[in-house]
């Protein structure tokens, strides 16, 4: 009997998660936090390279499933990879690596030396959980890693060990537990009526039940529970109350990773639920798409208005994150393939843009000798010019400046909305108003950091900028430009990946 050997790239999803977990448990054997930080970044760079190789292998539109262990479902577990999963794994790896690199100085300042190794361990567990959410083909396994991500993210907030960070972490934990409970209830209800946990099997069972009309109420309830649970965890309005304090009180690397990656991991699961488990047609019959759309519109406007009122730097950026997440929910609420593709592109845009803003803000706060308010940061971009450039590019991108990622994301969303029914005008109106609101708080912030202090000349602090933070910020800027200029090929790749879902 001839045995067909599979390409090595088929092992990339498993090895990516395994390397992240293995490096996490290896941290206690290292001497200090510096070695731990260096090791986990090396592993993230290796996984990024593996993800790039997997993306190149699947670029033409191939996909596969990888059975974990020797037992098939329902006892075993499966990983699934296609072009979209490979692209997301590559993006998550790069953002994780650059966020830890750009925030390394704040890790040394904000976290006690004996705790830095534990912090690296938690970050790597969080990284493994995010990769697992991208690749998993099993709903319950996804829930397990959702919990790992939630616990590690809460501890990442409190790692700074200030009174404010403790309160923020407790609030984050309360909201996270509420979301987890809703997700688990939804999974349990869905399993009770289908008997499956693998997403493909669930999709077939749900389609059959929807066609026959059986268990209509349990199916609707399970979809609503899981969607609301993941919306709470992703800080979608009106469930975003935990977000500003959590991001504002955490160290810079934690803020960048929470905003850029953790929120996106839960949205990836929402996309999988829509496309693989319930299907767009079933969700449209449940009016769940309308709920997502309305939440998105409300979040874009209310979170932006809240950002306008903030005097503290990181709180304004955190409210901006909630507004940008709402773009994704609005795009998913369009209920079309073009809308889902626009949501995926916005996911990538925000993943690379918001960590760049947080990393830039962290360096500006250091240059301002710890001042966390805009009045303390006047002229600080002249002391930390690369950080100022990163913050400026990120802010202008989210305002929708052409050639940057934010403009391409808004454009793709507007194009997707043109094919909608009643959603077209509300979408275009919300995009226009949100862009104006974004400009109303980002442009004044940019003018403040590049302004001059009264009676004081700006000073270039080259010693502060000579660290790895400089090239991490420049890499973020480069990726933002790539997303802005290369929107066509990237959207085509996303469409190819979605077709295989």
From TrEMBL:
<comment type="similarity">
    <text>Belongs to the CPA3 antiporters (TC 2.A.63) subunit D family.</text>
</comment>
<dbReference type="InterPro" id="IPR001750">
    <property type="entry name" value="ND/Mrp_TM"/>
</dbReference>
<feature type="transmembrane region" description="Helical">
    <location>
        <begin position="471"/>
        <end position="494"/>
    </location>
</feature>
<feature type="domain" description="NADH:quinone oxidoreductase/Mrp antiporter transmembrane">
    <location>
        <begin position="137"/>
        <end position="430"/>
    </location>
</feature>
<feature type="transmembrane region" description="Helical">
    <location>
        <begin position="12"/>
        <end position="30"/>
    </location>
</feature>
<feature type="transmembrane region" description="Helical">
    <location>
        <begin position="79"/>
        <end position="98"/>
    </location>
</feature>
<protein>
    <recommendedName>
        <fullName>NADH:quinone oxidoreductase/Mrp antiporter transmembrane domain-containing protein</fullName>
    </recommendedName>
</protein>
<keyword id="KW-1133">Transmembrane helix</keyword>
<dbReference type="GO" id="GO:0005886">
    <property type="term" value="C:plasma membrane"/>
</dbReference>
<keyword id="KW-1003">Cell membrane</keyword>
<feature type="transmembrane region" description="Helical">
    <location>
        <begin position="172"/>
        <end position="193"/>
    </location>
</feature>
<feature type="transmembrane region" description="Helical">
    <location>
        <begin position="119"/>
        <end position="136"/>
    </location>
</feature>
<keyword id="KW-0472">Membrane</keyword>
<feature type="transmembrane region" description="Helical">
    <location>
        <begin position="142"/>
        <end position="160"/>
    </location>
</feature>
<feature type="transmembrane region" description="Helical">
    <location>
        <begin position="428"/>
        <end position="450"/>
    </location>
</feature>
<feature type="transmembrane region" description="Helical">
    <location>
        <begin position="386"/>
        <end position="408"/>
    </location>
</feature>
<keyword id="KW-0812">Transmembrane</keyword>
<feature type="transmembrane region" description="Helical">
    <location>
        <begin position="213"/>
        <end position="232"/>
    </location>
</feature>
<dbReference type="InterPro" id="IPR050586">
    <property type="entry name" value="CPA3_Na-H_Antiporter_D"/>
</dbReference>
<dbReference type="Pfam" id="PF00361">
    <property type="entry name" value="Proton_antipo_M"/>
</dbReference>
<feature type="transmembrane region" description="Helical">
    <location>
        <begin position="253"/>
        <end position="275"/>
    </location>
</feature>
<feature type="transmembrane region" description="Helical">
    <location>
        <begin position="287"/>
        <end position="308"/>
    </location>
</feature>
<feature type="transmembrane region" description="Helical">
    <location>
        <begin position="42"/>
        <end position="59"/>
    </location>
</feature>
